[in-house]
Structures are given as structure tokens and as C-alpha cells.
Design a protein that fits this description.
This protein has 196 residues and is of the alpha/beta class. It is 46% helix and 16% strand. 33% of the residues are buried.
């Protein structure tokens, strides 16, 4: 991801991911962080579920029981279409902070692909508390928040202290490159296949 690490990061906070009923904790966090768009450049690129799209349609607004599947107004107002592939990596490389949130069924385990992508593109990963893989250490290589209610303040503090936060992001990228090498990936893959 080296080619996507940009020196200029005009986007303060980026969120790229899904939005559905399986993301209730993430949805609360998104709503809190959306309020930062008054002071910062916040980009939400959300891939909404079919049920969310139906609930937000003209017909869906008339049908009872779909209201709980609509995105909060603050989120819907700043939401942009989803991005994928190289465009996604370019977006991460142009962002200071990449916000991540685990899906509800993850329990306390963390370290989804978004974590690796954000750190690999040099953005500061800000994610929810949990059990992270080696190399993802809160306050050292990533920042974490305890609840949706403090996610926005965690991000604000990181942006107000950007030189320190940029150092954490750089350490995170370096640690990722040091620990998750191609050699290790291949060895882990071979080990996995041998166990099948």
C-alpha cells in the first residue's frame, strides 16, 4: 500500500463500510462522529443494506416498522456512495483518521481487514476497544474509544494533537510492515492449509 500513502491528507475523518441492522453499535458511533462535520472534513462512504435503502425510499417512509432501519439524519446528510478497490485505498491515503467499528457479532475480537487497510495506507486507525492482533496497540500504533459516546471526542483530541497522532499513525504503519510480511503471510497460509 506504499503507493497510497500520501503526504497531504485533506480529509480529517473517513468512514468506509457497511450500514445495516447488524451494525447497531457502529451506527451509534457514526451518528456521534457525524456531528464533527461542522468543524472537520468528515467523509462517510457507506454501503447501505437493501433494507436500509428500502426504509429510506419514498415507499419505505410510508410503510410501518421500517423507521428503525433508516440512517440517522446526521449520518444520511453527509453519507456518500461506497468506494471500493484502488479508489478506496486512495481515500485512506488522503485521510488523517480512518474510523473503524466492529460489527455486533464480533464480540470482543478486533482486527478486521479495515484495520490493516487503514494502517497500511498511513491513516491513524481509531477503533473501538477490544482484543487486537499483534502490532495494533492502543495509544502506541492505534487509538481506541470505549463507547459511541466518546468516539467523537477521541477523534477531536487526535485531530487537535495531530503531530502526536501522526506519529502514532506512522508507528502503526511501520509496525504493520514489520510484523505482517509476505513471508509470514505465506507461512501462516501454508500452516492453515496443512491443518485442513
Amino acid at each position: 500500500m506504499t503507493s497510497y500513502v500520501g503526504p497531504w491528507r485533506p480529509i480529517d475523518v473517513v468512514i468506509v463500510g457497511g450500514y445495516s441492522r447488524h451494525h447497531s453499535a457502529r451506527a451509534r458511533t457514526f451518528e456521534q462522529v457525524a456531528a464533527l462535520s461542522n468543524a472537520y472534513e468528515v467523509a462517510f462512504h457507506l454501503d447501505s443494506s437493501r433494507l436500509t435503502r428500502l426504509a429510506e425510499s419514498t415507499l419505505g417512509r410510508l410503510l410501518p416498522g421500517l423507521g428503525k432501519h433508516r440512517r440517522p439524519r446526521a449520518v444520511a446528510m453527509i453519507a456518500r456512495p461506497p468506494v471500493f478497490g484502488r479508489r478506496f485505498y486512495e481515500l485512506l491515503g488522503a485521510s488523517k483518521i480512518a474510523l473503524n467499528g466492529a460489527i455486533d457479532m464480533a464480540g470482543a475480537d478486533r482486527g478486521n481487514m479495515r484495520c490493516f487497510e487503514a494502517m497500511g495506507c498511513g491513516a491513524l486507525l481509531v477503533s473501538d476497544n477490544g482484543n487486537y492482533p499483534p502490532g495494533m496497540t492502543p495509544g502506541v500504533t492505534i487509538e481506541t474509544y470505549g463507547s459511541a459516546e466518546v468516539a467523537a471526542s477521541t477523534i477531536s483530541q487526535a485531530l487537535m494533537n495531530w503531530p502526536r497522532s501522526a506519529e502514532i499513525a506512522a508507528r502503526g504503519r511501520n509496525e504493520l510492515n514489520r510484523f505482517y510480511t509476505k513471508t509470514r503471510q505465506w507461512r501462516d497460509f501454508v500452516d492453515l492449509v496443512e491443518r485442513i
